[in-house]
Amino acid sequence: MTGGDLLLLLLQIRALPAVPSTSPYITRRSDVPTTGEEEFLNSERRQHIFMSPSEPSTVILDRQLNQSILISPTRGNLPTVTNVHEEVAEILALRMITNARTVDGVRIGVHFTFSKEDDGHFLQLVTSHIHARLPSSRYLFAIATTGASHDTGADTRTSNAVAICGSDEDDVQRTVLLASSKFLERVDAVQNTNTLFTASVRHIGTSSYDAAAWWDVLSNSVRTPTDPHLPPPGSRSIDQVLSDARSKLERMTPQQAYDALHDPTYPVPTYLVDIRPAAQRAHEGEIGGSLIIERNVLEWRFDPRCEARLPIADRFDLKVIILCHEGYTSSLAAAALHELGLLNATDIVGGYAAWTAAGLPGQIRPPSTSSDEKSQLPVSSFLMM
């Protein structure tokens, strides 16, 4: 039976006429919901089905689901909670299959659903329906619950259930290894049974990172192995990376940089930033008045949105001139500042070696502590080593 056949069948069942409750031959079963319970069942269905998925569903499928899952208050023979969970699990499986991406011939998908009672059992229902629908296809899916569990309450529950199912054991085990590195110190419990992996992971779905991380894990788990000596598709050589970085910059010669640093009419605050390691500075020498900021903290010191920024980094139009030994690392560093929005950042062609070769002084005008240059502070106060 196809997904369309199932939904059509559900519609036909919903259209059956109701049996009058006054019939002498009808005795109400204890497991059939009352009117108040109907609303609860509808809520059960809505929370599992209509939560925004990690990948949007089709409009047609959403309409079919909307017509098929809600209980009519005038209809008899209402389903039990167990039947509702079974029905919702199958519909979620259909949705995941419908929204699946194909990577190297493998269907992959990620879906988040609201946490309910007995999350682990419910997710296993979903995975069993996926397996039943794709008996001969290669697939890999991850489904997780979000929010607080109804078992223990929002104040005590910090973990959510995650299930990974696949048609190939190797795919699932690769996913487990990759996911372990993506969610370090967040995994509480694990159950691994070849093609089905279930775990308890803290705070699933609380940020956009989680959905993106799961898609990345699944994609990398099913990619066809390539020749390790061939560059992966989309990768770039360091020469390409450097060329791309420099294409964003208006690089300066040492003389141009020196002139800009000493021009009182220059339109924006300008700073020379030395990113060379301490050992290199000790061996080659320094330029007095420059800001000494190690490369590994550069972005944090100049991002105006970061709490660890320097006092001078309170605006995005700063002219930050990066200096390294020969002008290679400095180009990559300046391009990184562009990514933060500091579009005036640049570097010196040839680096410190070119500066000394040009005979420029080893001392420049000391920097101020704020971009409006209201005060001065010794250069040693800016050392970020």
TrEMBL record:
<dbReference type="InterPro" id="IPR001763">
    <property type="entry name" value="Rhodanese-like_dom"/>
</dbReference>
<protein>
    <recommendedName>
        <fullName>Rhodanese domain-containing protein</fullName>
    </recommendedName>
</protein>
<feature type="domain" description="Rhodanese">
    <location>
        <begin position="272"/>
        <end position="364"/>
    </location>
</feature>
<feature type="region of interest" description="Disordered">
    <location>
        <begin position="363"/>
        <end position="385"/>
    </location>
</feature>
<keyword id="KW-0732">Signal</keyword>
<dbReference type="InterPro" id="IPR036873">
    <property type="entry name" value="Rhodanese-like_dom_sf"/>
</dbReference>
<feature type="signal peptide">
    <location>
        <begin position="1"/>
        <end position="18"/>
    </location>
</feature>
<dbReference type="Pfam" id="PF00581">
    <property type="entry name" value="Rhodanese"/>
</dbReference>
